[in-house]
Design goal:
heterodimer, A: 2 domains, 3-stranded antiparallel sheet, elongated, B: 4 strands, metal-binding (chain B), hydrolase (chain B), membrane (chain B), Peptidase_M48 (chain B), M56 family metallopeptidase (chain B)
Amino acid sequence: MLSKLGELERAAMEVLWDSRTPMLVRDVAESLSKRDLAYTTVMTVLTRLASKGFVQREADGRAWRYSPVASREEYVAQLMLDALSLTGDREAALTHFARSVSSPEAEMLSQALADKQDET
Amino acid sequence: MSAALHLVVTLAICPVAAHLLVRARWVWRAPGTGIALWQMLAATWVLSLAGVLITLGLDPYDAPIPEALSAWAGDPLSTVTQDVLVAGGLAVPVAFVAVLVTSWFTVARIRRRHRDVLALVSRTDEAAPGALVVDHPVAVAYCLPGTPSSVVLSTGALRNLSTAELHAVLAHERSHARERHDLVLLPFVALRRCAPRVADAVALLVEMRADDRACREHGPEALASALHRFTASPPAGALGITAASARLERIANRTSASALQRWTALVSGLTLVSTPLSFLVF
């Protein structure tokens, strides 16, 4: 069950990443119509994503519109910074094969995230 | 007083032994033994520090520690100095455990977040069975420990490695996961600020231990060339490069320490750790 929910979260996230505008639960459900999901299931998935901080929502009349907090590339950059131990004291969190990043690459990764923070 | 003297001597041995062990090269031929020695040394240090303070504080009672401790607890006339010494001694192991627990929660939080993000952006790839793949040109390979643990590769790593090298890297990472090297490292990383060189030495031993596993499964050539590829570009810190060359060198001339060497080391470690234990328990 858990892995199924995880898979749905991922699918919902991809829908939101592909959309340029914030989406209603109904819109997300429609984009996932192949999966034949109940409205409440999509709602649960989006609420879970919001509680994990991956999506934000804004009120639109009596409904909520959902949009991703960060782009896919930014999340990948976060993972890479973690993996390269460039984000503070993370030595014990992950064990890596060998440290290999060159300074320009590290700079680029940090920059990708810094730019995003400036925008918001 | 002789108990305190014993403990002071043991306490003084700890930094000397740590200094020698940081420089020791024979432990590279027996990384498992080396890790066990570091753990025993850390335990000895904590117990002796606690022991010295407690025995000094309880000295006037002239009784074994457990009895003297209950005498002190029920003694309304104990001096302030005594109280401070005993309370300080008891606080040492408590503080140590508190640091470990805090560190554990911090690490667990980072991992949970990392796992959540991975679930959204990683994929599986036939080329790397059992691993998660993240699309990024920078080469990384790492293990996210936990239950279940995950081995993660970037497409940069996947592209640069031959099949044999890839299997060696995966075996290396899986052995980190299987032997819970994250738990081994936890206390040393938590106390990194007190002893950075010790933390680095233990981290290197852990890598060597995982290298040995990978060599056993896929041969030294594959692992060595994989390591070469990962360290071809200049690493972030100087440590990376020395550590990598040390690892490469020992993969090239693989010799293990003799059983005699290993046992001598383990028995010395056990003797050291049993000194403070014997005073605190009996």
